Amino acid sequence: MEETRVRLEPWSAADFPLLERANEPAMTEHLGGPESAGKLRDRQHRYEALSAREPSAGRMFRVVLEATGESVGSIGFWEREWQGEPVYEAGWGILPEFQGRGLAVAALAELLAHVRAQGNRAHLHAFPGTDHPASNAVCRRAGFECLGEVDFEYPPGVPHPSLDWRHRVGPPVPVRRQGGPVPVTPSG
Fold first, then answer.
1. Residue 157: pLDDT band by 50, 70, 90 thresholds?
2. CA distances from 128 to 14, 33, 163, 164, 182 (A)
3. Residue 36 CB coordination number (10 Å)
4. What is the pLDDT of residues 81-133, one digit of tens each?
5. Which of 36, 43, 94, 160 is deepest in the core (most CB within 10 A)?
6. Which long-range contacts link 92-99 to residues 24+ away (Cβ below 8 Å)?
7. Mean pLDDT calculated for residue range 149-158
C-alpha cells in the first residue's frame, strides 16, 4: 500500500523540530513524560553523534512517508548489553496524526533490513511498557518474539514493567549437539 510506504533518512541537525514534536505529552506518556529543553538538546546531539558513527554502532532515522515526503516520526537502534549478550535495542515514535496506519510497523521493517545489512549483533530487542498496547502490537506485527515481562529502566533509574521483544538480525547461531554443531535457521 502506497500510504504505508516509508523510507528512513539519517538523523541530522535539521530534525530538531521533529524531536520537539516527539517530546509532547501525547508522545512521551509511556516514556516518563516530556524532557526539559536542555535534555532535549542533549538528545539531539546524541542522535546526531550516533548517526555519525560506523553503521554497525547504531543509527537514528527520521521516518518519511513516501507518498508525500512528510516526516512522520523517528526510529533508531543502538548497542547495549542485555542479560550478558551484546545486542541492539530499538525505539520508535510516530506522530499522533499519523498513528494507526501501520507506519511504525513499516518503519520497523525498514530498520530490520538496515540492521541485517549493517549490524554485527545477533539480536535486536525492544522493551515497550506492559501498559503500552500499541507498541507491543507493533513488535508482534513486525515478527518479534516476546520473551516475557521484565523490569526495564526508563528513564534511567526508573524501573518500568516492560515486555522484552527479540528479533534475530544476525547470522544463525550454531547449536551444539553431540557430534558437532548444527546450524539453526533464523526464525525471525
1. confident
2. 28, 15, 6, 8, 33
3. 9
4. 999 999 999 999 999 999 999 999 999 999 999 999 999 999 999 999 998 99
5. 94
6. 92/63, 92/135, 92/138, 93/22, 93/27, 94/63, 95/21, 95/22, 95/27, 96/26, 96/27, 98/65, 98/70, 98/72, 98/73, 99/134
7. 83
